[in-house]
Amino acid sequence: MYRRIVVGYDASAQSERALDAAAEMAKATDGVVHVVHNRLYGRMPEGLVRLAKDEGLLGPDILEKTRSGTLVADMEDLAPNQSSQRIGAVLADLLTSRAQQHLERCGAKHIETYTVAGDPAEEITRVASEVAADLIVLGSRGLGTVKGLMLGSVSQKVLHTSPCACLVVK
Ligand SMILES: Nc1ncnc2c1ncn2[C@@H]1O[C@H](COP(=O)(O)OP(=O)(O)O)[C@@H](O)[C@H]1O
Ligand SMILES: [Mg+2]
Description:
Layout: E1 4-8, H1 13-29, E2 32-38, H2 46-54, H3 60-64, H4 71-76, H5 83-105, E3 110-116, H6 120-130, E4 135-139, H7 153-161, E5 165-169
Parallel strand pairs: 1-2, 1-4, 2-3, 4-5
The protein binds adenosine-5'-diphosphate and magnesium ion.
């Protein structure tokens, strides 16, 4: 039975289905769900930027920059270590607490969350090793915009390097 379950969450619809699957499994085994969210840097997907904006996470300095173009494009011009990273960090807190609430609503009882910053696949497998996970649950795709691929690069890399069984949710 799978009792130590790591799930990768990037706020995509598929990663929400991965949370559902992880919660179901944990309920059946009285297991622990470890949610890993790797901070989103650099070019931020439109949906997340909109979320950040709705939640009031973007200050007037950034909103000012959105006048002439899309927010995503403008954010690429921001200096590294400044607004983009700051938003990544604030979003990470928001998203991990959303994931936690989602799991609680699904009836999961034991939940740990991890915010990491690095290569998402490496970070997911690292946490899996650290908690001696017996299952990793991921969505087949995430926030990426490249169409037509069956697996995204994170799910593909985790499948290659995982120390344990993996469940890829569609
Ligand atoms: N930043 C991230 N943090 C945690 N998990 C992630 C992250 N990015 C992707 N994942 C996990 O990997 C799955 C597949 O996403 P990914 O391989 O990035 O596909 P895409 O290329 O469509 O974005 C997601 O559903 C999620 O479970
Ligand atoms: Mg992705």
